[in-house]
């Protein structure tokens, strides 16, 4: 009897010890433990949060975009005092397509570029030509417009070639492709380049006789002439560079990527052609 009782007590103690042990880990249908599943979920959430932080649209950032004050038909003030133009319409269409917010600040071309380099804005859209020199400092989007340079003179001027500019003063707008082209041929044809801050001041210089000609981006001067500006284009258009949206190098790669994707989409949808046709007659 004592032997039987001793065996029974031993069995009860063994059962009790087993019942006080740690509970086996629960597993999911995939074979991972609940703890592992929770850890994986946390990791996925963290990765997702990181991806959102790298996206301007996801983070809700509002981009500051600087532009020119007068560079019709790309940016200019209409009769209501509103800034309008090809650049601004393209930017708006792309922002709507890609879902990012922005604020346009018209400050003039040279001031816009200066602000970009100082980190005071996130991007510039201002009929900005993509050049070898500029790509060293800026990240450009894919080209959104192919331009060129034209020489404009008074409607009743007898100037029909660059040779007739010898010993004369020629107007150009600071920082533009027209200015770069004028300076590149100034020595060859013997004329002096006078730089102006705005296109309107440059045109007025020619009209007032302060300069015999001006060099300007072809679609810009063509638009102004079609609206009654008393100038004419006596020479064929010089092939120029393409316009691009610019950010400071390495500063906003996600913004350039969104611009490129949006540009592709609005071209495919026909919205891009609608914008051009609004400002430039075929």
How would you explain this protein's 3D organization?
By secondary structure, the chain is α/β, with parallel strands linked by helices. The chain folds into 2 domains: 123 residues, Periplasmic binding protein-like II (D-Maltodextrin-Binding Protein, domain 2, 3-Layer(aba) Sandwich); 84 residues, D-Maltodextrin-Binding Protein, domain 2, CATH 3.40.190.10. 43% of the residues lie in helices and 20% in strands. Strands 7, 8, 9, 10, 11 and 12 form a 6-stranded mixed β-sheet that branches. Strands 4-1-5 form a 3-stranded parallel β-sheet. The protein has a two-stranded antiparallel ribbon with strand order 2-3. Helix 4 packs across helix 9 and helix 4 runs antiparallel to helix 10. It is globular. GO terms for molecular function: ligand-gated monoatomic ion channel activity. This is Glutamine ABC transporter substrate-binding protein. Keywords: Signal.
β-strand percent reads: 15-25%
Q: What top-tier CATH class of the largest domain fits best?
A: Alpha Beta
Oligomer: single chain
CATH structural architecture of the largest domain:
3-Layer(aba) Sandwich
Q: Which regions have little confidence, pLDDT < 50, spanning 5+ residues?
A: 1-41, 43-54
| Count of helical stretches | 10
What is the helix fraction of residues, given as a range? 40-55%
- End-to-end separation: 115 Å
CATH homologous superfamily assignment of the largest domain: Periplasmic binding protein-like II
| H/E element order | HHHEEEHEHEEEEHEHEHEEEHH
Give a topology summary:
Blueprint: H1 2-19, H2 34-53, H3 56-59, E1 62-67, E2 76-77, E3 83-84, H4 86-98, E4 101-106, H5 109-117, E5 123-124, E6 138-140, E7 145-154, E8 169-173, H6 177-189, E9 192-196, H7 199-207, E10 213-217, H8 218-226, E11 231-232, E12 238-243, E13 246-248, H9 253-269, H10 271-279
Parallel strand pairs: 1-4, 1-5, 8-9, 8-10
Antiparallel strand pairs: 2-3, 6-13, 7-10, 7-11, 7-12
């Amino acid at each position: 009897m004592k032997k039987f009782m001793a065996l029974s007590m031993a069995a009860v103690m063994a059962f009790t010890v087993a019942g006080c042990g740690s509970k086996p880990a629960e597993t999911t249908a995939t074979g991972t433990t609940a703890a592992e599943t929770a850890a994986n979920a946390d990791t996925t959430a963290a990765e997702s949060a990181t991806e959102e932080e790298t996206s301007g649209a996801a983070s809700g950032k509002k981009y500051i975009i600087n532009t020119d004050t007068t560079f019709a038909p790309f940016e200019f003030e209409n009769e209501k005092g509103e800034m309008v133009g090809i650049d601004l319409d393209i930017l708006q269409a792309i922002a709507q397509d890609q879902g990012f917010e922005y604020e346009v600040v018209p400050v003039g071309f040279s001031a816009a570029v200066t602000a970009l380099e100082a980190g005071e804005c996130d991007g510039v859209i201002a009929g900005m030509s993509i050049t070898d020199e500029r790509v060293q400092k800026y990240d450009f989007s894919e080209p959104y417009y192919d331009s060129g340079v034209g020489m404009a003179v008074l409607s009743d001027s007898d100037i029909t070639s660059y040779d007739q500019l010898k010993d004369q003063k020629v107007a150009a707008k600071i920082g533009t492709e027209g200015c770069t082209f004028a300076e590149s041929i100034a020595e060859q044809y013997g004329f002096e380049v006078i730089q102006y801050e705005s296109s309107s001041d440059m045109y007025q210089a020619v009209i007032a006789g302060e300069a015999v000609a001006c060099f300007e981006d072809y679609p810009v001067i063509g638009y102004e002439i079609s609206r009654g500006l008393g100038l004419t284009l006596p020479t064929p258009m010089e092939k120029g560079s393409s316009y691009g949206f610019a950010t400071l190098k390495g500063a906003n790669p996600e913004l350039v990527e969104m611009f490129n994707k949006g540009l592709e989409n609005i071209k495919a949808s026909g919205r891009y052609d609608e914008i051009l046709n609004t400002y430039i007659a075929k």
